[in-house]
Amino acid sequence: MRAAMAGLLSLIAVLVVARSAARDPRLSLAVWRKPAAAPQEPAAAVVSAALPTPPVESNALADANLRRDGYSTLRGGVMYVPESFSSKDGAYDLVIHFHGNVKVIVESAEVAHVNAMVAVINLGIGSAVYENAYAPPGTYEALIEQIHHAVVERGLANATLRRVALTSWSAGYGAISTILQIRRGTDPLDAVLLSDGLHCGRLPERPSQLNHRQLAPFVKAAKSAAAGKLLFAITHSEIDPVTYVGTKDAANFLIQAVRSEGSVVEGPLVAPAHLQLKAALNAVEPSLEKRMEPIRDVHVGDLHVRGFRGQTKEHHSAHLLQIGATLMPELAERWGNRQ
Question: What's domain 2-336's architecture?
């Protein structure tokens, strides 16, 4: 039974991502195609000069003529302008989320009052498809450029990218793993949020030990967060996938890796508010909903690891459905205090 856990997690991931697509064809997964050749110029330069932006009149807000309806199509996903977004001068923050029901992510950002554009990328089943998609150099920067074009086309005057947060649920962590390794550093990356999705394999020569080499990008990010240079927040369940390392053990490894970087602080166990999202009605069956019961809360600088009880696929789904009560509020607080 335990050996079948990996297959069950993949199945529930498909159900959560795709259920709303069956009711709303606009949310069906986009077909991913091989990325175009990497741009020759640094991505930041491309973004800043990608499209002429309409000048903003004196005393007028930059978002006065921003079109908020519908969505903009991206390679492998979509971009929404949440109700929580506003900009006086054209500067905007950006959340790029990998893997998960689109409307759940957008509504979660709204209920957490995240003031940012939200892009959601869905490429398929398993982490490998996400890892491979962003392996070609420049693919990540091309995505940011495409999003910037969409923001400008929607009418945000003087559009300027300010900060980026990379977020994921389940297998989506694969995209972030690759991006952290090959990004050019021209993007203003400020936060990484992983919702029950930090995994790795085991060492071929020592099957009892996790493959620390696969976690190297996240260890580097964790050390940066411990030094206060990045927000790195993680939630994990107690699921043991058996065939690979679960999120709890992977998180344990990160904490051990940064112990020398700062004080490890154990926080009080406070259960997050249970969200009842409208989008969840089309995302999963009501019987799949679980409440988040905390089992640990660990801080090392701006590295934050929160563990929650549960070993079933329903508990895994809860990390997506409740991301607006767990990880998104941390991002809203960080960006709200730094406007």
Answer: 3-Layer(aba) Sandwich (3.40)
